[in-house]
Design goal:
This protein is an alpha+beta fold. It has five helices and ten strands, in the order βαβββββααββββαα. It is globular, with a radius of gyration of 16 Å.
Length: 220
């Protein structure tokens, strides 16, 4: 178990406008960096929105049917909307190890462990950040990860498709990977709800934090 106090766990009700969440997250990260607030794991859903990471290519925005917002995180275009669990992680890597690669790896492992509890075999794919699973014999992306680190405090985090409208992803090339489809728990025939996912994620927080802070080699 981590010797640090666990981050505050917050689940937002309803749909949170993306711009409001972005402002609140950035304010919280500044407060954490200043030692004025606790770390935060913030789970929420957004109204439909396309967000552009710092590597987003204009050609990958195919149909801007929803608002398009520059997110300031790493990565390319992604979609957020109802039925998708978004997790914003405001964690102090000054206290948990200044290693961004390890942080991303730990987030991936955390989500994979939670999905395993729900009966979904998910995995990492070499050279492709995110969470992958099999869908009809093909690899499909079920979760995206995009982070930013400022003063060694993390911002943004992950999104995981529970039961979003997957047609909404067709307005972009998700994460700049045109050859791979996106999927969801519902698409896979899994009846788990967002609440079920939240509970599985929360049960795996201690292991996530231990992995984040643990020195040595990372597991594959």
């Amino acid at each position: 178990m981590s010797e640090l106090a666990p981050p505050h766990w917050c689940v937002a009700p309803g749909l949170t406008p993306y711009a409001d969440a972005l402002a609140a997250m950035e304010a919280r990260a500044a407060a954490v960096a200043a030692g004025e607030a606790a770390e935060l794991i913030w789970l929420l859903e957004h109204p439909p929105v396309y967000t552009a990471g710092t590597s987003a290519r204009p050609a990958d925005l195919l149909d801007p049917r929803f608002p398009v917002v520059a997110a300031g995180r790493g990565g390319q275009y992604t979609y957020h909307g109802p039925g998708q669990r978004v997790g914003y992680l405001v964690l102090d890597l000054n206290k948990r190890g200044r290693d961004v690669r390890r942080f991303v790896h730990a987030v991936e492992g955390w989500i994979i462990a939670a999905l395993d509890e729900l009966g979904v075999a998910a995995f990492r794919a070499p050279g492709r950040v995110g969470i992958w699973t099999g869908d009809g014999g093909h690899e499909a992306k079920i979760g995206a990860i995009g982070v930013r680190v400022k003063r060694w405090v993390t911002l943004h985090g992950f999104s995981l498709n529970v039961r979003p409208d997957l047609t909404h992803f067709t307005g972009i090339v998700p994460c700049g990977l045109p050859d791979f489809p996106v999927t969801s728990l519902y698409q896979l025939g899994n009846a788990a709800t967002i609440t079920d996912l939240d509970q599985a994620m929360q049960r795996n927080v201690p292991t996530f934090l231990d992995t984040l802070s643990c020195p040595g080699e990372m597991e594959a």
